[in-house]
Amino acid sequence: MNAAANFGWDSLRHGGLLLDPQRVARIAEYIPTPLSPQLEQELRRQATGILEGSAEVPEFVSFVLQRICGFSTETGAWQRGPQVGSEWNRRSVTGEAVKPRQLWRGRDGGIVPVFIDSEPRLGQGRGRRAVSHVHQWLRLGAERLALLTNGRQWRLVFAGLDFDAWCEWDVNLWFEQGVLSPQVTALRTLFAPALWISPPKDGFPPLLQAVIDSRKGQAELSAVLGERVRESVEVLLHAH
Asked: What whole-number distance in Å separates Cα of residue 109 and Cα of residue 83?
């Protein structure tokens, strides 16, 4: 089984190039141990509440990130709602103040900004507004990765200066035939705290580094292919 299938990468929706196959294999090394039966049962209960509209989205997001993914208070500190200070405000092009609804800061460095939207579909219709705000917020600061969710869809967003990319989960697909689906494994892998914590020597967190390396590899491949096309054209011209 290849690395992408092994941790559920292929089961997600994608926009742009977030991770190339080489980097996907690197991220697969962070696959976590299986959830306990108790946590799996609680996740099922809360996910059902979200799908039925009887659960509160912020509480569900907190539960998933802290209990299912492992962003606990032992490795970092959570700020939620009004606890997220005004220093995280950044102005959108329309003048609106944009900041995360939740924020995890690792004790050894690393940040997970969490944006929560109320629209039924991320990136569609009015849901495009929240996506645009997240892109602008990321580009106005040093952060490059963020989570955007409405409870049902969970989107990991990367926004660089010249491109953006994402992958997305759907809570509707978290349980298949009565068991956890590969999407949950993919969520717990990509949101493993170790991937978001900065290394000791002022480098990028492993997940961000993998995204940057994927982009760099894509740019190098495009340059090589462009050069080969140019050489082929020259050969054809000389032949005539």
From this structure: 19
